[in-house]
Amino acid sequence: MLADRCVTNPCPDPSDQCCALGPNAAACSAQSTCQVSQTCLPVQDECAVLNNADCQSAAFCRWRLITAPAGNGTLNGTVIGTNPNATYTNSTATNRTSVSTKGRHLLQAGSMPAPPKSTGAASADNGPPGSLQTGVCVMDASKHPCFAAADAQTCFSLTDITGRPRCYAQGTCLNVCTKCADCLNATSTSLAAIFNQLTGPDAADAGKMSQAFSTWCNQQNVGSAICSSIASGIAFSPNGNLARRPGKLCTLAGMCPAGCTVPTKLADGTIAKQPVDLCSSDGTATGTPVPAPIKASGQACLVDRDCNATSGAWCSFNYSAPPICTCQAGSDVCNSVGTCNSDICPKLQFLVTLNRDKAPCTTNAQCNQQGGTAYVCQTTPYQTYNCSNSVVTTTTNTGYCVEAAPSIESAKLDDTATTIVASLSANATTFTTDCAQVFDAGTMSKLGANAICQVTSAGPSSKQLVVSLRNVPNIIWDTDKLGIKDNQTVLASYAGRRAFAGQSTAPIARCTNCASPVAVINGPTLVTKPCPGSAPEDYSPVYFDASASIGAAAAPITDVSWALLTGTSDAITNAIDSLNGQAGAKSKMLLKLDGATLLTTDAGSYSLVVTVTNNLGISANSIVTITVAEAGGKPSITLFSPSNDASGVLDINPTQGLKLNSKLQLDSICKGAKPSKVNYMWSCAAEDGSSCTVPAATRAVKQLKMDAAGLINFKRNVLYTFTLTAGFTGSTAVSTATVVVRFTPSPLYVQLTGPSGDVPVDKAFTLDASRSKDPDNPAASLRYEFTCLPQPCFNDPVYTGTRSKASSWTIDPTKLTIGTQYQFAVTVSSTSPNDPRTSTSPVMTVTPKAGNPPTGTVTRFCGYDPNDSKTLLACLPRHNPTEDLVVVLGLDKGFGKAKVLWSIAEPSDKTLQENVNAKGISKTTLTVRPAAFPTAGSMRLLVTMFMPGINGTASITIPLNTPPSCPSPPCFFTDVNSAVFPAYTFVGSVAGWTDADRDTLLYEFGQVRGGKYIAREAAGPSTSYVFKGFEPGSYTLYACSIDTSAARACSTANIKVTEPVVTTAEEKANLVKVAANKIDVAQLASAGDLSAVTSAMQEFASLQSFASKGNSGNAGQGATVAVNQSATADPAVVQKQNALLTTLSTVMNTNDAASMGITLNAAGAVSSGASNLSSSAGSAMLNVVNGYVTANTNAKTTTISNAQVTTATQVTQKGVTAAATSSSSNGNSSSRRRSLLQLATTTTDAGSPSAAFLRLSSATDGLMSLLSAATPSGTTRVSGSQDICFGILR
Questions:
Q1: How far is CA 1250 from CA 103, 151, 580, 1204, 1247, in A?
Q2: Are 580 and 562 in contact (CB under 8 A)?
Q3: 1069 Rama class: left (phi>0) / alpha (psi -120 to 50) / beta
Q4: Percent of the chain scoring above 90 in pLDDT
Q5: 3-class secondary-structure state, position 266
Q6: How far apart are CA 542 and CA 565, in angstroms?
Q7: Cβ–Cβ < 8 Å for 305, 312
Q8: Strand partners, 938
Q9: pTM to 2 decimal places
């Protein structure tokens, strides 16, 4: 580790416990208010040797008069200055600029405090009589370039005119609470001034406040990921309230950890340290609350008790009125405002409607008059109510008529050809499940595996069963019928809970107006010919990809054909004819125009058309017009548009953010001389002319990525055209690509909390839906409708529970029947006119029980924030069934010794015994493996708690996110399955993937190695990827389809790379050199395309590996060609190896954890076989590791694989070795190199991958500074009364 070594360096503040810990990283990290940081310091005093004139010309030096006693003649080596604005290069905290080791920087108040005054001899502009005056040049550290270094890498990179480093980094322990106070000061003053410039409606416009904060935050060196996260929170806070709460802002920025106290001015004027306040306008306990507290007045109310002044009155909520919001723990809690109403009848109206479909009866004979269907009288007593002028009359009925044998009357494929809608003879209870729970085996063989059945409408209106198809059905339309499984209980009538049975009365009808498929072509509109002098076979082909075309589950695409619509080219026509002659629709999805084809095609305009046809005989087409031009004029780009409807419009849920991927045709940049850099620029335009702005931070990059906060001001259901423009530096010629996006209203988020399981009959319980929200406008009020089954819910006809607020319902269990299982739910809906959105919560099951049963609460556990081990990560609304599920039982007070046993309550055909981790089913924490989950719907877990003489239950219902599916395999395939090393490519494509929730799908491509899925291309909208970089052998490739909630399904394809024909070691070496020479690093650097660089590095790594191994002679000799590593040791190959690593570090994206994983793997692939690594390549490798750590830290990644930790460690070791080897050749360099290697090796010791990752993260924090050849090997004396501290290795 990096430690301070100081001769004299007392902490300026004796009460600062963090300062006293110095470089002890472990002790520092153990204190919640301390943070391990780095300090960037000058290597030496650059001012001390300057004369007066030179001193005054240096920006960071100042000339000061020094006074000493007369006759002394010397200053005894001591330099004294009195200017309070001057600082010195010593190790006191006042002379440091702090760099966070966690990838983020500290918000500071804007100026550094003055240094402590020297205790040396007195000085003044005019000394006392008889004194000796002289001058000295002193350093003002606040103006030195080291002071401004934003991170360790920058600190290390600063050099003097001789090229030697000027600065070095040093470990220290900072008191974060001091920085917390600075942060509160900065945010409460600077931000207030900015927000005060917003006037009128803008002053409470959360979107504009979010943008203003983002601009300011990105100027503070806080880190773009943190700024973006906080800006998103501001955008979603009512009236932008979060922006005016410094305590919460600084806490979110990591500046104010729990336990911090800050100086606070009390009412009596005294200053005392008080805890940070998360809700006030200045972050202190005496600040003004934001927003100011508001209380309901007059007849207005928030809860029923506000109306107690009027006997019997209750709070009738008016959802059209704006809600009242208060701040709790820095977050807004908003409640609807109601009006006190003394008439009880409107409150009982929902009870009246619950009985509206029940016909009273006492005998079966009274029910036979219900038409031709057989009805019987179900003798379940129930009550009907009538209310007038607050007077309730009750009628008790013996029973009600129900259908004797409810059945399916008819079924029809809907026009989307994705679902079958069945009409039911009776209203059914709601559910979502695997259709195998409802239908018999014969029907399931016709529907296809994994079909999903659901009744979605609540209560009496539920007379439709919807069957979502996930595979191509084997149904004979208008002939086959739906057969219900014997003894099934899932599909049951709402009244009487009678199970449906038998076959559907009518056969399954085909759709009437069946929708056509959607034809899509992804490809560039500009196609460049091969560069002059280049061989056509070396040209990377241009692909036009139709595999994003969309069929339907019951109507998959069965034929594809291409045509040249306009323009004349025999070469293109021949390529089309060859493709159309292939067998099978999916083998014809990818049209390839290679170098030979384009070389003989005249420059000009051409139109390509693709026609796709489904199994119902319905066709659709798509046309792309391309321009064929000479290379070098403009870059050729493709913008991928995963349109999900026939209009070609990309529908996006704005809460998921927007990500648009582009691809550069690499050979539109000619190889050879250093090419010009490709520059990118994004713009957008709204269909209705409204404002449309791409944030400056993402405007000039190849991939557009906007988070939810950046989309807050984009209108819903308005078409926006996003345009990417690309051109070479110094040229006005540009190429463009566009995609049309429509931001759709987000689904309402509903969350219901409260007990689920047994409840004691003598203790009221509350159902709370206050965490539900509209993601598009979290400040908007919602309408809450609670339901209770079975009905009647209460044994008191006038009891309705207590609405403590619109979003909660408190129930007295004595009004329920003991032992009866009740199902509670809430439906939230928008209160905005013409907004039909509604969402219903999972059911909470409650059973009143006498005595004192053990109770507890079951919650999902989705991990801790990696940056804050005390903060839980939020779970996705729906669990991905491809991942483990962890639930935790919290036992209530008094039941801590209860024994527990878990089980699956629903669906009934699933068990836990074989599908949990080693901890089993008798602990308070349960881990459920994916094999236990149904394919759709939800799972209800039940835990039984045992105490002596009594037991109790608790449960939780887990909604499941249905993963993507591919009804018509193959779902992933390659253009060829065998090729000869090394001149080969495999183009992998996906087609036919769908999602039951109609999510926009992304696709990840990679290789299966040792049972692990190793990504080559991060998830994006592209439906194809060009694989390179395999030495001879057999391989399994994969593609995964991923929905917006991260559920994934994968498919694989096998390929084989065969040995080349080489008979001697020299032939082999030459083969490698020629292949390596075709990788043009200058071209890659100009393109700035990460995917192209990582692909080239995988290709280069395969050449390295091939050169180091023997191989079979394919010339018939049967001999083994000797291993020959001369190819990889060739100076030109070594230079290319180092240039690739250096280029990789310039194009990596540290804002994307997934792409940084791929970047790390590429660095690992090349470095594993590297020889003669240069110092710049070593530094680049360390940059990659540091970028990987930063990206995963910012993304709050909770799972790091063993493989990636191993790769990161290996890259670190080789990077340290390369960089240390080229360090200064002083006597200490060898020992320092050994220490560096030991530092890197410590990350590989035993422990979990996550622990190893943390050690690796800690090691990389200061790695660049440790490599500084200028790190002093002994004390550097600086003019001043204290010795400078410097870094040493321990």
A1: 17, 24, 51, 10, 8
A2: yes
A3: alpha
A4: 28
A5: coil
A6: 18
A7: no
A8: 959
A9: 0.75
